[in-house]
Design goal:
alpha+beta
C-alpha cells in the first residue's frame, strides 16, 4: 500500500512539473540585440508614445478601478483639434494603462523572437510602426476615444472598455451630434457590461488583435466571432491577457496579432 502511494505521488509530481511550451523572455533575446538593438528600440518607442494624443492632462493614478485593482491606471483629460462641424475642441476623459518605452520595446522584441525567431529590423519596425499608427500604445481601460477616422477633422466618439470598443445600450447617453457632454464622459468611465449592447467591437488594443487572431494562436475561451456574435467575453479575455502582459516580458495579444498578420510574413 505504501509503495502504491509513493508511486502515485511520483506520478502527480511528474504531471505537475511537466514542462510547458517555451515562452520567450528578455534574456532569451540575442546578446547583440540586448546590447545594441534594444536601447535603440527603447528610444524609438519613446517616439511611439509621443503620439499618444489622449495623454494630455493627467488627473490622477488609480489602483482601485473595478477589475483593474493593483494596476496603475491613469485618468486623462484631453481635447481634440478643432472639430470641423462643431468648431470647438471636444473634451474627452479616459482611463489609460500605457506601457513605458522599455516595456513596449520588450514586448515588441519578444514578439518578433517568438513568432519569427528573429529581431531583424524589418519585423521590429513592422510591429513598432503598426502600434504607433493603430493606437500609439494607448490601452483604453474605460472612457471615450475621439477619432477622425472617416473624415479628417470630424472627431467622433468611440466608447472603450477593457481595451475594446463597446456600444452603450442607453441611446440617451450617446450624443447625437457626436459631442459628448460632461455627464456622458463620466458615465463612460464607470460602464458595466450590463449597460452595453450584446456585441462588442472586433479589435483589441494595442495592435488590433481580433478574435480570429486569438483562436489561431491557440485561444480556447469562447469569445464568439468577428461577425454577428461578438460576445462580451472578449472584454474579459483581453483584460486578462493585457494584465498578464503588464508583469511579463511577453504580450500574448501582440503575439497573436503577429502570428496572423500579413505584414509579418516572409
Amino acid at each position: 500500500m505504501k509503495q502504491k502511494i509513493v508511486i502515485l505521488f511520483a506520478l502527480m509530481l511528474l504531471i505537475t512539473c511537466r514542462p510547458t511550451m517555451a515562452q520567450t523572455s528578455f534574456q532569451d533575446l540575442p546578446v547583440e540585440f540586448r546590447k545594441n538593438g534594444y536601447p535603440q528600440l527603447v528610444e524609438e518607442c519613446k517616439d511611439v508614445l509621443k503620439a499618444a494624443y489622449m495623454a494630455q492632462n493627467k488627473l490622477g493614478t488609480f489602483y482601485d478601478i473595478p477589475n483593474w485593482e493593483g494596476y496603475p491606471v491613469e485618468l486623462w483629460e484631453y481635447f481634440t483639434g478643432e472639430d470641423i462641424k462643431k468648431h470647438v475642441k471636444k473634451r474627452g476623459l479616459v482611463y489609460l494603462l500605457m506601457p513605458t518605452p522599455e516595456k513596449l520595446a520588450t514586448w515588441i522584441a519578444t514578439t518578433c523572437w517568438e513568432v519569427k525567431h528573429s529581431v531583424d529590423t524589418c519585423y521590429v519596425n513592422c510591429i513598432r510602426d503598426f502600434i504607433k499608427w493603430q493606437s500609439a500604445a494607448q490601452f483604453a481601460v474605460a472612457g471615450v476615444v475621439y477619432e477622425d477616422m472617416y473624415t479628417k477633422g470630424f472627431y467622433e466618439p468611440y466608447v472603450f472598455k477593457d481595451g475594446v470598443t463597446v456600444y452603450v445600450a442607453d441611446s440617451t447617453m450617446m450624443p447625437a451630434d457626436k459631442h459628448c457632454t460632461d455627464e456622458q464622459l463620466e458615465y463612460y468611465l464607470h460602464l458595466t457590461n450590463n449597460e452595453l449592447k450584446p456585441n462588442t467591437g472586433r479589435y483589441a488594443r494595442i495592435c488590433s488583435t481580433n478574435r480570429d487572431h486569438y483562436y489561431a494562436a491557440g485561444g480556447t475561451v469562447d469569445v464568439g466571432n468577428n461577425e454577428d456574435n461578438r460576445k462580451h467575453k472578449w472584454l474579459e479575455v483581453v483584460r486578462q491577457l493585457y494584465q498578464q502582459a503588464w508583469n511579463s516580458d511577453r504580450n500574448e495579444l501582440m503575439i497573436a496579432w503577429a502570428k496572423s498578420s500579413p505584414y509579418m510574413k516572409e
